[in-house]
């Protein structure tokens, strides 16, 4: 665009370099560059925090600091502007390090021309805008523009961590519209969508303006309204002062929603039921807090709707069942009740099975087969996931070695297993893995550890160290559930990964939802740029597979090819799927 104004921050302790940069930018015919120059590290930090720049240029040499030091500080401070590192003669070996740390580009000052500098800035800005668009599609609800489930989970997780650190409280409100289905059926879905938008606007406007529950000036996380889907909303109130203030907010929301909505000529009345859970009294982790707020919301429905209810322990009708299940879980290893199922991973280009994901099941002595979703959260909450995870690791490595020793029938394959966040944070994890690999004799290159995006992103600096130690051991690493967290592309470059697995929630509607398709395509392109293979989870139809193949996805798994198989059925399945080559696993 002609005469576009672009604000640039230059951090360089050499005034001559500033003058050269200013002169180069002044040669542009199509754009006007407003160049702000600072010469010290401290000034740069203030400008980054306070300024709104379109792009930043950091000189590599900044006295006792380097441009990389400043780059890392800028990334930590959530700097929104793309950053270009300027290097001097003999400093070209830092280019890859700069890109891994989050730089968009690097330039050798001895070779910079006006055309090259302008092209680098334009590329950096456009790339950042593209990333922002992708993130917005991934983390904001299309209909209401509110944060979606993934972003809300991220903000709630951060709020709980902050509250735990500073001994604070926060409140979670779970809101569900009353009789929304009747409105949809009576009028039409278009009117239902307009109502959802109207509710979102009122909630967002009120929660943003309400200051009765937040201590002002903390500068941490603002109150958040999110749409989980359908007619469900969540509201996060951070740093609450009193429980009474939360009740006032809930009551005010009910009053605001009671006012009629005028939707395309229709007067529509709406009400809502609200459940409230308070941290830490009603749950010390995200999943428990959400579950209890949801339980309280249904309690509000039972009370006649259009009201709010706080969570009470007496609401949990399954408390006794949970206690019984926990006692059984503690004895399950001793009783050898856990079994492993294996789901094939298929190379899309060749159709060959290239690996298996090991999935645990609990064969309860009374209740029969229990799915992981029904006991893994309990195992993590009680800490039992540590011995259970170690058993899975031993069983997987032992089974893979058995298959490898039958080399006349099978070629070696990679078996993958999931690591929970609690396992990943254990100081003894490395020793456990080394011991298991040594005792089973399995080559570590045939073991892949799947770690969820949220766990990897929780403490990026510690995670990088841990993952590098695993890589040095020879183990493969995959980021699981990619897209459900809130990871930064610049951070992703820091992690020594082999694969990323696209979460099934993006695959489910890939053929009907253009946004999901765009997100999946963007993830594949981004991953390939970082030399990572991409695995799509939850593929259930030929149409999904065809689209993934068109996008260049590397592998897939899901019911379309095979359900998870018990160990005894794996051999028969492989022989059936590969009749031409009994030696292909």
Question: What's the structural blueprint in terms of helices and strands?
Answer:
Layout: E1 4-11, H1 15-26, E2 31-38, H2 41-50, E3 55-59, E4 61-62, E5 65-66, H3 67-76, E6 83-87, H4 95-101, E7 105-108, H5 114-139, H6 149-165, E8 170-177, H7 180-186, H8 189-209, E9 224-229, E10 232-238, H9 243-258, E11 261-263, E12 266-268, E13 272-279, H10 286-302, E14 308-310, H11 319-332, E15 338-347, E16 353-364, E17 368-370, H12 376-382, H13 385-405, E18 414-419, H14 421-424, H15 429-440, E19 447-452, H16 453-458, H17 460-473, E20 476-482, H18 489-492, E21 499-502, H19 504-507, H20 514-529, E22 533-536, H21 542-551, E23 555-556, E24 565-566, H22 567-577
Parallel strand pairs: 1-2, 1-3, 3-6, 6-7, 13-14, 16-18, 18-19, 19-20, 20-21, 21-22, 22-23
Antiparallel strand pairs: 4-5, 8-10, 8-13, 9-10, 11-12, 15-16, 15-23, 15-24, 16-17
Helix pairs in contact: 1-5, 7-8, 8-9, 13-15
């Amino acid at each position: 665009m002609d005469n576009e104004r672009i604000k640039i921050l230059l951090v360089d302790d050499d005034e001559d370099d500033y003058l050269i940069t200013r002169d180069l930018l002044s040669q542009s015919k199509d754009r006007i560059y407003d160049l702000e120059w600072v010469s010290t590290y401290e000034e740069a930090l203030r400008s980054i925090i306070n300024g709104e720049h379109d792009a930043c240029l950091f000189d590599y040499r900044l006295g006792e600091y380097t441009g990389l030091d400043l780059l890392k500080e800028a990334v930590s401070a959530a700097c929104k502007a793309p950053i270009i590192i300027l290097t001097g003669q003999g400093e070209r070996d830092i280019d890859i390090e700069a890109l891994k740390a989050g730089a968009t580009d690097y330039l050798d000052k001895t070779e910079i021309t006006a055309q090259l500098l302008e092209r680098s800035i334009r590329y950096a800005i456009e790339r950042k805008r593209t990333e922002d668009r992708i993130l917005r599609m991934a983390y904001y609800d299309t209909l209401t523009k509110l944060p979606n489930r993934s972003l809300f989970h991220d903000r709630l997780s951060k709020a709980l961590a902050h509250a735990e650190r500073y001994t604070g409280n926060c409140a979670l409100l779970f809101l569900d519209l009353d009789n929304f289905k009747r409105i949809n059926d009576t009028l039409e879905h278009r009117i239902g969508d307009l109502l959802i938008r109207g509710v979102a606007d009122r909630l967002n406007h009120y929660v943003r303006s309400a200051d009765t529950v937040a201590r002002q000036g903390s500068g941490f996380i603002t109150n958040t309204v999110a749409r989980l889907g359908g007619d469900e909303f969540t509201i996060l109130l951070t740093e609450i002062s009193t429980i009474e203030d939360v009740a006032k907010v809930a009551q005010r929301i009910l009053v605001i929603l009671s006012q009629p909505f005028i939707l395309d000529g229709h007067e529509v009345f709406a009400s809502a039921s609200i459940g409230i859970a308070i941290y830490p009294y009603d749950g010390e982790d995200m999943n428990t807090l959400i579950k209890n707020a949801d339980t309280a919301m249904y309690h509000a429905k039972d009370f006649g709707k259009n009201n709010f209810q706080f969570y009470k322990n007496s609401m949990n009708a399954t408390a006794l069942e949970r206690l019984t299940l926990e006692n059984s879980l503690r004895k399950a290893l001793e009783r050898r009740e856990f079994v492993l199922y294996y789901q094939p991973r298929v190379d899309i280009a060749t159709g060959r099975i290239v690996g298996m994901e090991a999935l645990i099941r609990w064969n309860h002595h009374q209740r029969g087969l229990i799915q992981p979703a029904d006991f893994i959260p309990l195992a993590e909450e009680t800490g039992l996931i540590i011995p259970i995870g170690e058993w899975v690791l031993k069983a997987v490595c032992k089974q893979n070695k058995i298959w490898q020793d039958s080399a006349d029938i099978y070629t070696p394959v990679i078996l993958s297993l999931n690591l929970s966040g609690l396992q990943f944070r254990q100081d003894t994890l490395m020793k456990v893995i080394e011991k298991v690999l040594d005792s089973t004799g399995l080559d570590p290159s045939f073991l892949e550890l799947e770690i969820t995006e949220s766990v990897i992103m929780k403490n990026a600096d510690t995670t990088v160290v841990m993952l590098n130690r695993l890589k040095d051991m020879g183990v493969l690493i995959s980021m699981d559930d990619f897209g459900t967290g809130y990871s930064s592309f610049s951070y992703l470059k820091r992690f020594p990964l082999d694969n990323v697995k696209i979460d099934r929630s993006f695959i489910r509607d890939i053929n009907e939802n253009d946004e999901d398709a765009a997100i999946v395509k963007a993830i594949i392109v981004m991953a390939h740029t970082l030399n990572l293979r991409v695995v799509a989870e939850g593929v259930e139809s030929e149409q999904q597979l065809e689209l993934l193949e068109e996008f260049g996805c590397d592998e897939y798994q899901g019911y379309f090819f095979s359900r998870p198989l018990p160990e005894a059925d794996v051999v028969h399945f492989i022989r059936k799927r590969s009749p031409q080559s009994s030696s292909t696993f």
